[in-house]
Amino acid sequence: MLAPLPLAQACCTPLTRATLPAEDAVGLARTLKALADPARLRLLSLVAATEDSEACVCDLTDVLGLSQATVSHHLKVLVDAGFLSRTKRGTWAYYRLVPGSLDTVASSSRPSEA
């Protein structure tokens, strides 16, 4: 006679806290996609490092070694994602770091307790 088989054990650890809801995951992925570019990360760093956390697009092109059109495209992506705000002064656009915008990414990637 064969010995009885042991009861099956759970294959995974049970969840102990809330997970990221699907709609939050979509929004976070969109936000992280905006950050997932070396030029955009450098732009955020450059703007954040300037006095008053504000820079003119004219000051950013030479530092990055990219064309004005390419820098403007990257800045628009960062504005659309909520990391930078844009104000127009004459013919130039100035970009400012949105206070707390990077904090929001850090906190939204950690699911809250249920």
UniProtKB/TrEMBL annotation:
Domain (HTH arsR-type): residue spans on this chain: 20-114
Protein keywords: DNA-binding, Transcription, Transcription regulation
Keyword hit for Heme: no
Pfam family, one: HTH_5
InterPro entries: ArsR-like_HTH (IPR011991), ArsR_HTH (IPR018334), HTH_ArsR_DNA-bd_dom (IPR001845), HTH_MetalResp_TranReg (IPR051081), WH-like_DNA-bd_sf (IPR036388), WH_DNA-bd_sf (IPR036390)
SUPFAM superfamilies for the chain: Winged helix' DNA-binding domain
Highest taxon in the source lineage: Bacteria
Protein name: Transcriptional regulator, ArsR family protein
Organism: Naasia aerilata
